Amino acid sequence: MSKQFEELIKVMARLRAPGGCPWDREQTYESLGEYLLEECYEAYDAIQKTSESGDTQHLQEELGDVLLQVVFHAAIGAEKGDFTIDDVAEGVKTKLILRHPHVFQDKKLETADDVLDNWEELKKNERSERGLEDKASESVLDDIPAAFPALIEGNKISKKAAKTGFDWENTDQIFDKLDEESSELKRAIETGEKEMQKEEIGDLLFVVVNLARKLGVEPEDALKKTNRKFRSRFKFVEERIRKSGSNLEDVELEEMDRLWNEAKAASRR
């Protein structure tokens, strides 16, 4: 264990000790849950920004915040007698060794897909050994947490289903399905049925997720990139409008479109 990591654990213990921080002492597994989720999302965002800028400083900071959450939970676990940070580290070390027999044993796995397939098989065996063997009536999708964000959940669902052979043969078939779902959405719009519109938009999004999977594109990454691109271009439009002495509300759509095209051209340059 590095000196820096040991010091981090000591700082956390001091914050939780009598005379430490009142807020830190009050925290529980449950109360920290939202912060862990928040920090993971911020780290994810930092990864996207790092891939574009090459600057890793922000990513380092966000990973530190995620690590703090792990250390915080482990400190609570140690106080309650549930587990320690050493138990956490030992558990993940053991799991990595067991799930990489092609590295630590003699098993031959040639491709990344072979590794993932073997990983899933090993997970299933581990569940069985712990007395958690799947019932015959359970779905192969049951181990995908429903609490995932919808886009991530949809991508994982489509991957699981595809592994059973329930998949399109090629992308042309998916484009045909996109046309079908688009037509159904248009009909729902024409009839004014709001619930049906909501359902058809969901169907359309799910087909797009499958198209992304088929092309080897992570849909969450793709949409995040587009979101950042839109933010940047819209900010350009806002700045140009402010510099002209106008407000967004006073500018015609035609002028906003012109500025948007300027933003696109500028970003490409």
Provide the descriptors you would attach to this structure in a database record.
globular; single chain; Helix Hairpins; 3 domains; 269 residues
Layout of strands and helices, then pairs:
Layout: H1 3-16, H2 22-26, H3 29-53, H4 57-80, H5 85-98, H6 101-104, H7 112-129, H8 150-163, H9 171-191, H10 194-215, H11 219-243, H12 253-268
Question: Could you describe the 3D structure shown?
Answer:
With 269 residues, this protein is mainly α. It folds into three domains: 3-98, Helix Hairpins (Orthogonal Bundle), CATH 1.10.287.1080; 149-217, MazG-like (Helix Hairpins); 221-268. It contains twelve helices and no strands. The chain has helices at residues 3-16, 22-26, 29-53, 57-80, 85-98, 101-104, 112-129, 150-163, 171-191, 194-215, 219-243, 253-268. Helix 3 packs antiparallel against helix 4 and helix 11 (219-243) packs across helix 12. The radius of gyration is 25 Å and the shape is globular.
